[in-house]
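Q: Convert this sequence to structure tokens.
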Amino acid sequence: MPEHSPLLEVKSLHAGYGGLPVLHGVTLKVGRGELVAVVGPNGAGKSTLFKTISGIVTPTAGEIVFDGVSLLAVQPYRRAHLGIAHVPEGRQVFPSLSVRENLEIGASSGKGRRAWNESCEKIYALFPILAERARQLAGTLSGGEQQMLAIGRGLASAPKLLMLDEPSMGLAPAIADEIFERIVAIHRDTHVSVLLVEQRVAEALHFAARGYVLETGKVILEGDNEALTDTARIRRAYLGM
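A:
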């Protein structure tokens, strides 16, 4: 594939649950080293989009191409080996395992194992609290610390694409701000591509190069951050302006 080709391309994607359609022809792309936001109201299909990319949900139509490979032919567990890390909504750490063990599980891909020492160093530099609490059970961490651990676990796979689903959900504003700062640092310092679903629309669009607005399973608007934050519909519906 040529170097300028997108890292991720989603084309006319349809998906849902048990015959109930949720996504209706979603098309988007993420460039190499790009931070892209997906915003929209609850029930718009944002989490379903992520689950379809990572293989938890099987699409009924459309195409997903990652780094030149069609994901429709790739088993879900193999997608992590290709370089996709999905940090799900609600954190979903392993509560009965230590912080360190959670990170080690994240490094189970081939590239993750090879890069483990380097990745671990980067994760602890980004989130020093995880280094301090490496032996502590993940279930005893605060919500913000669990979110840091979930992101760290995603980074432990040494991904090309980090998909973050609502990383600020349920967190106090100050902690959410800290998480955002770390996401920006990850993107700036590691050059990993980031696809971000976020309820804090103003922050998501501010930090992203481009964004997509999803409503009822369809992309209704797309553009660079400046264009979207200037769009009256976005300002009225999502930014309260």
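The mean pLDDT is 90.
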